Hints:
This protein has helices at residues 10-17, 21-27, 31-53, 60-77, 82-85, 89-111, 124-138, 144-158. It is mostly helical. It has a single domain (31-158), classed as Tetracycline Repressor, domain 2. The protein is elongated and about 60 Å long.
Amino acid sequence: xxxxxxxxxxxxxxxxxxxxxxxxxxxFACREDLLAAIYESRVTAIEKAIREARLREAPVAxxxxxxxxxxxxxxxxxxxxxxxxxxDDEIRRRRDACIAEVDLFLxxxxxxxxxxxxxxxxxxxxxxxxxxxxxxxxxxxxxxAQAADVVVDMFLYGVGVPRQRTQEPVEENISGP
Length: 177
């Protein structure tokens, strides 16, 4: 709800959650406290996704799929206005650390030959979250695992090493009859 309407009131949020607004106020003194808790939960979930993907240890392709699948689930569970979320300095610092960890992983993926070296520097880093965002919010009919399959395939074969052909392409007769 907050992603669609960042200015939603506590009463609206409570109604959407199926609880009385007093229930929300018992836990959160004001709307800003509620938002802070949501942002904290989202960044904590991102950190957990990075840890569980084992970006530094797992085989690169495996780590990439694990990370993407988990981040799609995070984006669907905690859809928030990112600009508002990043206004909090501590949340921004933690998110920047997450981005740095993913950037290191993408360097590892490039060194391992999974990503092409002929792309502009820092191209893959901003591209991956865009693909994840599309999968999380526009392919909601897919499970996080299915959406991750699509994202990883598009990512690897869009910025990745070209696929080896299993057969020669069919030559077309373009000279006419």
